[in-house]
Specification:
Layout: E1 2-16, E2 20-28, H1 31-36, E3 42-46, E4 54-69, H2 80-96, E5 106-122, E6 128-131, E7 141-145, H3 147-154, E8 165-170, E9 178-182, H4 183-188, H5 201-215, H6 231-234, H7 236-239, E10 248-250, H8 258-264, H9 273-283, H10 294-307, E11 310-313, H11 315-318, H12 321-326, H13 339-356, H14 368-384, H15 389-405, E12 413-414, H16 416-424
Parallel strand pairs: 10-11, 11-12
Antiparallel strand pairs: 1-2, 1-7, 2-5, 3-4, 3-7, 4-5, 5-6, 8-9
Helix pairs in contact: 8-9, 9-10, 13-14, 14-15
Length: about 425
């Protein structure tokens, strides 16, 4: 249950607003101990809920580790000769205590926080992990959890024989402890990853995603909103995997370098594959650890371009008549209240009935010809009664844009309906 020959003492407990309690633990200093006890190490301390028939240990997590020599507690404010001599003596104490503590003046001062879990160890029966029943007892012995018990705590409630599990990594302190993850719970539960810039949030998430995609027992759908264009490089192996049917969806023509956009859509004058791939290499953000591998990644990005997996969201062919006239996707040129709101809507309804009849506006998307007919009909209606001319100015401008945009047929283009159908496909 515990790491042998290494025990500490719980010296202090205090209330803490961030973690409920803050514990101070002393361990005898040895070089073995200072290397064994690290941030994240799990400790076990008897708590007040235990009794004669059941041992209960509160599980604490080490937050900070500080070797302390009490001969130096006065700091550097004394007579220099004495202070320097004391410091040199302390240095010797650090070095000679390899695996056995021989000096009472050296301690390892640890600050630990509660995990809100406890190990329940009945005299007859198997130990188990549950919610903490009470706080740890000051003055009690503190011991380090071994790999077996660290595994019980880290994977609390997860059985290795369960289906649809993946191993996302090992414990930082103990690589014998594999961290298990229920795949279904991951994508059905809200979660967040916090950390300073550069600490590895994106790398951790991409690692989890790669594990999940490879270990899932049924088709899994994931959508990334990649605002910084970093996951193209981090998940490149998944894009190129035969097991994963991935797409890189471009929102707006100017999201990609123009040469690359021309190439994936087969436009006249588009650069060749190698040049288009170089555009993507320059455009892709890589973490520092992958910068030395840029040449290898460039070959992968070239394969990504060649595979046809970069798609362009064709907004013009995705917009419906309903979206344009009866939602806020295109704002009105003037705000109105009262009866004029209904009168303004009747102008559009009259034009649409004339052009489309009583069709299903929510599923009618624009072609260049349809945009032209609706624009001409709306202009005629506003010429007859100019009261709502300013209101409809943005919509008329949008219709002019749609006449041009809807006429362009991009080879890599994909519509909103096609994206939804793709995500709802249960077979892949």
């Amino acid at each position: 249950m515990f790491v042998k020959d290494m025990e500490g003492t719980l010296m202090e407990v205090a209330e803490a607003p961030e973690t409920r309690y803050r514990y101070v633990v002393w361990f005898d200093y040895t070089r073995r101990a200072i290397n064994e006890i690290q941030e994240g190490t799990l400790l076990a301390v008897p708590n007040f809920a235990g009794d004669a028939s059941t041992h209960r240990y509160s599980v604490l997590e080490v937050a900070t580790v500080l070797p302390t020599h009490y001969a130096l507690q006065g700091g550097a404010g004394g007579y220099p000769g004495f202070v320097v001599e004391a410091a040199r003596s302390a240095s010797e104490d650090w070095e000679v205590q390899e695996s056995e503590a021989t000096e009472d003046t050296t301690k390892i001062r640890i600050v630990a926080i509660p995990t809100n879990l406890e190990i329940v160890e009945p005299l007859n029966g198997e130990p188990k992990v549950g919610g903490e029943s009470n706080i740890a007892m000051v003055g009690s012995r503190v011991r380090i959890l071994d790999s077996e018990y660290s595994n019980l705590v880290a994977n609390n409630g997860i059985r290795p024989e369960e289906e649809n599990l993946t191993v996302i990594g090992t414990m930082a302190r103990d690589d014998k402890v594999e961290i298990l993850l229920r795949i279904e719970e991951l994508y059905r539960t809200h979660f967040a990853i916090f950390g300073f810039t550069g600490v590895g949030k994106s790398n951790l998430l991409s690692t989890i995603v790669a594990k999940v995609l490879n270990d899932a027992t049924h088709p899994l759908k994931l959508v990334f909103f990649d605002l910084m264009s970093e996951y193209t490089g981090l998940l490149l192996d998944q894009f190129l995997s035969e097991k994963v049917d991935g797409r890189l969806l471009v929102l707006g023509r100017h999201t990609l370098p123009e040469g690359l956009f021309q190439h994936i859509n087969g436009l006249p004058g588009a650069p060749k594959l190698d040049e288009a791939a170089r555009h993507l290499v320059r455009y892709t953000l890589l973490p520092k650890a992958l910068v030395p591998e840029r040449r290898r990644i460039a070959f992968g990005l070239r394969d990504l371009v060649h595979s046809g997996k970069i798609r362009y969201f064709h907004d013009a062919q995705s917009l419906t008549v309903w979206d344009l006239f009866f939602t806020d996707q295109t704002p009105w040129g003037k705000d109105r209240k009262g009866a004029n709101i209904a009168k303004r809507a009747e102008v559009a309804k009259g034009v649409l009935r004339e052009v489309l009849g009583r069709g299903d506006y929510k599923h009618t998307t624009f072609t260049a010809d349809l945009a032209r007919k609706i624009r001409e009909g709306l202009e005629a209606a506003l010429a007859a009664d100019a009261f709502f001319q300013d209101d409809y100015a943005p919509i008329l401008s949008r219709l002019e844009d749609l006449e041009t945009a809807a006429a362009q047929d991009f080879a890599a283009g994909i519509t909103h309906e096609e994206i939804v159908d793709d995500l709802n496909d249960p077979t892949r």
